[in-house]
Design goal:
The chain is of the alpha/beta class and about 240 residues long. Helix content is about 40%, strand content about 20%. The protein has a single domain, classed as Carbamate kinase (3-Layer(aba) Sandwich). Helix 2 packs across helix 4.
Length: about 240
């Protein structure tokens, strides 16, 4: 992976990443770290759009497992991503970064509706675009939304920040014998059922030949270090 390979990327930020060491909600230090990473990467002339999850506030699939109607639970999860998008926008604007939120569920009072051409134009003008509310449909994860938006925006790759420095054969926090991969094919991820993204997202990335870069979101300048090939990561292509 070369530094100049990626001119436009989609950065997938999980809700858990915004929670930091807290048990729920937002952690100011964690959000600040995410913003610093985005600012640093943007300073290297990289166009960045973001899809943010909502797991720090509400998990639709967990609520459905406990008896809530799945459709209602998923819509509640989508609204949680909108809250996170607003928190991230506020933090980025403290760094004088021009930012726009576009939501798959129209809510004109607080953000723009998702319009592909408008989002692309924002990126061309150097703005950060945060895509909220997933795909706008129940039964689809924010991972699938990230791949969908990355394809629509003609991004060079998805960068998924996680709690570990790549993809492992099993959870390295629980299994000390877990194998770390530097590179994987889409077929290997699907065949081994590796928990990188759900299989709908992986299949969509495969069909559109969209690379997925998985790295640790911890530490300063993690995103720009991976972009510059100065940190560990796993690339799926």
């Amino acid at each position: 992976m070369t530094k100049n390979q990626f001119k436009r990327i989609l950065f997938k930020v999980s809700g858990e990443a915004m929670m930091g060491n807290s048990d729920f909600g937002h952690n100011e230090e964690a959000i600040s770290n995410i913003c610093q990473q985005i600012v640093q990467a943007k300073s290297n002339d990289c166009q960045i759009c973001i899809v943010v999850g909502g797991g720090n506030i509400f998990r639709g699939i967990s609520a459905a497992a406990n008896g809530m109607d799945r459709v209602s639970a998923d819509y509640m999860g989508m609204l949680a991503t909108c809250i996170n998008a607003m928190a991230l926008q506020s933090a980025l604007e403290k760094h004088n970064i021009d930012t726009r939120i576009q939501s798959a569920i129209p809510m004109n009072t607080i953000c723009e509706p998702y319009i592909k051409r408008k989002a692309s134009r924002h990126l061309e003008r150097g703005r950060i675009v945060i895509f909220a509310a997933g795909t706008g449909n129940p039964f689809f994860t924010t991972d699938t939304a990230a791949v969908l938006r990355a394809v629509e925006m003609k991004c060079d790759a998805i960068f998924k920040g996680t709690q570990v420095d790549g993809v492992y054969s099993s959870d390295p926090k629980k299994d000390k014998t877990a194998t770390r991969y530097d590179e994987l094919s889409y077929k290997e991820v699907i065949k081994q059922d590796l928990k990188v993204m759900d299989q709908t997202a992986i299949t969509l990335a495969k069909d559109n030949k969209l690379p997925i870069v998985v790295f640790s979101i911890k530490g300063q300048n993690a995103l720009s270090n991976v972009l510059a090939n100065k940190a560990k990561f796993t690339i799926i292509n």
